[in-house]
């Protein structure tokens, strides 16, 4: 019998459009956990391309990786800039 080859699932590979990213971030925001939302921003930024998101957000790629990494503590203005670079806006409802 042949062994089944598997690989880790990465949602970033399936976020193909701005609409996909918007719905993904919306669901993460509804969770209410800052850690979940920051992790979702990381995933969405990887889906779009960290270099492109960093350029649009006006930050360096290295600082973007550091800010959105697990345990990172991004400033609120960084979260806003990255969210906008991903084609979204933060909104209070």
From TrEMBL:
Annotated InterPro entries: Cro/C1-type_HTH, HI1420, Lambda_DNA-bd_dom_sf
GO MF term set: DNA binding
Pfam families listed in its UniProt record: dnstrm_HI1420
PROSITE patterns tied to this protein: HTH_CROC1 (PS50943)
SUPFAM superfamilies noted in UniProt: lambda repressor-like DNA-binding domains
Domain HTH cro/C1-type: residue ranges: 50-93
Protein name: Probable addiction module antidote protein
Organism: Desulfuromonas thiophila
Lineage: Bacteria, Pseudomonadati, Thermodesulfobacteriota, Desulfuromonadia, Desulfuromonadales
